[in-house]
Amino acid sequence: MDIFHNLIAGFGVAFQLDNLLWAVFGVVVGNLVGVLPGMGVMASLSILLPLTYSMTPTAALIMLAGIFYGSQYGGGITSVMLNLPGTAAHAVTCLEGHPMAKKGRAGAALFMLLLGSFFGATCGILLMVFLSPILSSIAFKFGPAEYFSMMLLGLIAGSTLANGSALKSIAMVLLGVVLGLIGIDVNTGTMRFTFGFIELANGLSIVILAMSFFGLADFLKNINNSDLASPITKIKVDSKSIRPKKGDIKKVRGALFRGTSIGSLLGVLPGTGSVIASFIAYATEKRISKNSHEFGKGAVEGLASPEAATSSAAQTSFIPTLTLGIPGDPVMAIMLGALIIHGIQPGPALITEHADIFWGLIASFWIGNLLLLVINYPLIGFWVKLISLPFKYLYPTALFFICVGVYSTNSSFFDVGLVIFIGFVGYLLLVLDFEAAPLLLGFILGPMMEEYFRRSLIISDGDLSFFIEKPISLAFLVLSLLILLYSIYTSVSKTKIAQT
Fold first, then answer.
1. Cα–Cα distances in Å, from 421 out to 104, 209, 406?
2. pLDDT digit string (tens) for 26-51?
3. Rounded to an integer, what distance in angstroms lies between the CA atom of residue 40 and that of residue 210?
């Protein structure tokens, strides 16, 4: 009963006028940050952090948190409409959301986007309320070996992201891993694969890769497509066009729960978060779905599951930050900094010593996510009308946002040039039927795998058996092997069927 009393008290804090206004401000700014491609949430939080000096700790956290999870909502909109991921976590959304828009189902795609996001966020908040201590203890059981094995599982599952050749998919995963190694080696300080460019010392940005492959490369691929000379869709926007087709809700019910489960678990683990959660949720859904042949052509479960995973991970990532004082990613580090600025030490004592902050923040999550739903649902018609613009207006505008978004990340024209170069390379790969999603997954997981692998070898003094001596690590390795064997089996079976 204490939980319910605390939650009611938290709503009392969240509904205080100043806290409520900052929640509205945060989610609106976050939504805009997500909609504008390349305008990263990190930059927005960093710019607005000084504003929190004159605010109460509760109001500061509510505003910053609203920007963070608000960007998770907005980021999917341009993914569906323009095939441009507003945030890195929404690169997967492009795979199913944009094909739905091309088929004239942009309204239904955006509705499914909102449904997945709201469902995942709601479940993530419930987990924060009831299972914070348990989930925090799970995070403590993960060491370098467990992280490495889990990310290896993610990479192998990622080979199922592409719709074409499994060999090409694996090649793109490996290329992504190599691209992720560009920059300074954190252990030795050695520059790797920079080719003399000092601008590459900090490595490539996920924003650059996402914009290059899903933006510029896609534009170049479609530039001579006569079908795009006219508007992509001329559907009338009304309540009927926004509603999903008969059977769509039934298809996504299980997908929503699976995506939420994956996102909730990965959100708790430091260093994983929304991006990895979205990729693994999509790969899982594609592997187990009875409608796997529809993936890449507008499968609703392939859209709903990653969105639920992204939003639930965004919520549960607050658990280790607030209860353990361990930031799982740079965004959570800023949240931690905001608390420390106000003289509050995050950790297990936060819940008891600063109950008003903890429960007020959790209550604000519900208010903020409901606000995002109220804000975005009426705008579905506007976004659908946007895609009805002819190609000759729509894509040059998208290219402008790509350049502005990429430049704003580091204020570097070198990054803009890099996007153009990688975009042309990406165009050649797309023409040759190499898909971008596995590359992005390899890029994200590769450097982290290397780091945890090297840490494990240091701890075990170079003994590789260290990875199978840990039960959780062994379980992930066995799962990886089973998925690999299953992939080989299905590939061989398809080859035999084709030959007969």
1. 32, 11, 13
2. 888 888 777 765 556 766 776 677 67
3. 12
Cβ burial 257-275 (10 Å sphere, 16+ → b, else e): ebbbbbbbbbbbbbbbbbb
Q: Coil, helix or strand for 366?
A: helix
Contact 222, 228 (CB under 8 A): yes
What values do phi and psi take at 344, rounded to 5?
A: -110, 125
Amino acid at 89: A
Query: How far is residue 285's CA from residue 306's CA, in Å, rounded to a whole number?
Result: 9
Q: Which two tokens stand for residue 65?
A: 């948190």
222-229 long-range contacts (CB < 8 A, ≥24 apart) are 222/391, 222/395, 223/395, 225/391, 228/391, 229/390, 229/391, 229/392
The vertex-252 CA angle with 153 and 285, nearest 5°, equals 20
What are the residue ranges in the chain where pLDDT is below 70? 1, 36-40, 42-43, 46-47, 50, 86-88, 132-140, 157-166, 186, 207, 214, 222-244, 246, 270-273, 292, 324-330, 333, 347-349, 380-395, 398, 405, 408-410, 490-500
pLDDT per residue over 251-261, tens digit each? 788 888 888 88
